[in-house]
Write a structure and sequence with these properties.
Helix content: 40-55%
Radius of gyration: 24 Å
CATH architecture of the largest domain: Alpha-Beta Barrel
CATH superfamily of the largest domain: Phosphoenolpyruvate-binding domains
Distance between the termini: 11 Å
Oligomer: single chain
Number of domains: 3
Strand order of the largest sheet: 1-2-3-13-14-15-16-17
Shape: globular
CATH class of the largest domain: Alpha Beta
Strand content: 15-25%
CATH topology of the largest domain: TIM Barrel
């Protein structure tokens, strides 16, 4: 029965993804178990402890069993060895991000803004400095600005002989604060810890003298449940829902980490424990698909949460008469992390796609203390699915803004070398950042490919396989 259900899952993916979905299912099945005692025994015996075998997990298990004396029939041996898994990942990275001159370096993505729309010389310098991909964020600037940025990149690529892909980010739902009640005229709402206030729909009826915040995304209030956390301004303010409602919810401010206890308008809101009924793909995003298909090489899907979100975008692209461009799923919400195996499975209905670890919003959603752990889990699952990963947000950020790097971000930059692509934010010192990043990764690249990990059970694997077994 289980084999029949596995066959149904495999049948749903693109023919070029069948090896990858099979390997992902095997990996998830293994990661349901606590392998730490076994890993210690294998390591003591001088055998593979199964760490760093994500891309070829069944063959690695078989190899260990053979070393221990198991007689496995030749016809049952998996052909997906370490070399095959690594080669498949390299091929997909090249298909997504283009060819690169330096095999040690990941691809390098640079975020553009309106200033680069009018500075061709600087764009050309970025290409010469190692930029492989230019990122345009549709949440900022205008189509005229985007067109000028793209023209500069295309022209610079022709002149320098350095190819460069265009990555176009869909904006996703805009979830920002709006001041509706007290403090709205001053542009800030002053709050204290343990104080109650309200989160309301913009058209709800309330006393204007009360402390009331609105949200630029309508329809979220009704999804809130008592006890849910709501975070404001990159997590500087944390509140708890005390009374839910269709149009107005009562919140209690549980923590304030900002220097000044004031929430302003246009600050981000995160709902890490709330299942929002609104879709991730907005009408604005849909309106930009023709532009993206006409001018871009890659399409970033912001705030994706469920497999249904991915399926909706894939279907719109298939129905369109424009060129087919690969999609990059941006993992930046707690819900996306929880649903990652299902997101990968849905992504596999196309021959190639990517995943971005968008560490900014993700850290706010899951808690900064969990970011290191969760980004490793995302790496593992994506490697098991042979999906290229973009490491994004605040890479050498202080260096980019001030010209001087902090010690911690230099260490963080080394971790970026695990990904197939590294994204840099816009900044005044991009050329210096590109040079520094390449120097760091060249120095560290000769010392390791992967580290040894110990495998405690993964809840992500358990949840997906429960779905897989009982609901397929």
């Amino acid at each position: 029965m289980l084999k029949n259900r596995q066959a149904k899952i495999i049948a749903r993916v693109h023919p070029q993804q069948k090896k990858s979905i099979t390997n992902l299912i095997h990996y998830l099945a293994l990661r349901r178990e606590d392998l730490r005692p076994l890993q210690d025994h294998l390591h003591d015996a001088g055998l593979s402890s199964l760490a760093s075998a994500e891309s070829h997990i069944l063959r690695q298990v078989q190899a260990v069993l053979q070393r221990l004396g198991a007689d496995i029939p030749k016809k049952e041996l998996s052909a997906g060895n370490a070399g095959a898994g690594a080669a498949l990942l390299r091929q997909r990275a090249a298909a997504l991000f283009g060819q690169k001159e330096d095999p040690v370096m990941p691809h390098l993505m640079v975020t553009f803004d309106a200033a680069l729309a009018g500075n061709f010389a600087y764009v050309k310098s970025l290409l010469k400095a190692g930029m492989n991909i230019a990122r345009i964020n549709s949440a900022h600037d205008s189509p005229e600005d985007w067109q000028r940025m793209i023209s500069n990149v295309r022209k610079a690529a022709r002149m320098t002989g350095h190819p460069c892909k265009i990555y176009f980010d869909l904006a996703g739902p805009k979830i920002r604060t709006v001041l509706l009640g007290k403090g709205r005229h001053k542009g800030r709402l002053k709050l204290k810890e343990q104080e109650t206030f309200f989160l309301a729909e913009s058209d709800a009826e309330f006393d204007k003298k009360e402390k009331v915040l609105g949200c630029t995304l309508s329809g979220v209030v009704k999804d809130l449940r008592v006890g849910n956390r709501v975070l404001f301004d990159d997590g500087l303010f944390e509140a708890i829902v005390e009374i839910s409602g269709e149009r107005i919810a009562t919140l209690r401010m549980s923590r304030i980490s900002a220097a000044k206890p004031r929430i302003k308008s246009e600050k981000g809101i995160n709902f890490p424990e709330t299942e929002l009924s609104v879709r991730s793909l907005t009408d604005y995003d849909k309106s930009l698909l023709p532009f993206a298909q006409a001018h871009a090489d890659l399409l970033g899907f912001s705030f994706v949460r469920t497999a249904a979100d991915v399926a909706e975008l894939q279907e719109l692209l298939r129905q369109s008469s424009g060129k087919k461009i690969p999609v990059v799923l941006k993992v930046e919400t707690f819900e996306a992390v929880q649903n990652l195996p299902a997101l990968l499975q849905q992504g596999m209905s196309e021959p190639v796609f990517g995943v971005m670890i968008a560490r900014g919003d993700l850290a706010v959603e899951i808690g900064f203390e969990r970011l290191s752990e969760v980004q490793e889990e995302i790496f593992w699952l994506c490697e098991a699915a042979h999906v290229p990963v973009i490491w994004a947000t605040q890479v050498l950020e202080t260096l980019n803004k001030s010209g001087i790097a902090t010690r911690s971000e230099l260490t963080d930059a080394v971790r970026a070398g695990q990904a197939e692509c590294v994204m840099l934010n816009k900044g005044k010192h991009l050329l210096k950042v590109l040079a520094t990043l390449q120097d760091i990764l060249h120095r560290s690249g000769g010392h390791h490919v992967k580290k040894r990990y110990i495998f405690r059970p993964l809840k992500i694997a358990e949840r997906f396989l429960e779905n897989f077994v009982f609901r397929v």
